[in-house]
Amino acid sequence: MIAGLGQTPVGEHWDTSLRELALQAVTAALEEAGGIEPQALFASNLLAPSISDQAHLGTLIADFSGLAGIEAVTVEGAGASGGLAFRQACLMLRAGAADSILVVGVEKMTDQIGNVVESTVSATLDGDFEAVQGLTPTAQAALLMRRYMHEYGVSHDCFAGFPILAHTNGATNPNAFFRKAISKDAYDQAGVVSDPLNVFDIAPNADGAAAVLLTRRELLPPGFPHPLVRVTGSSSATDTLALHDRPDLLEFPAARLSVQRACLQAGISIQDVDLFELYDAYSIYAALSLEAAGFAGRGKAWRMAQDCQLGLQGTIPISTFGGLKARGNPVGATGVYQIVEAALQLRGQAGANQVPDARRAITQCLGGPASSAVTHVLERLGG
Question: Is the pTM for the entire model greater than 0.70?
Answer without folding.
Answer: yes
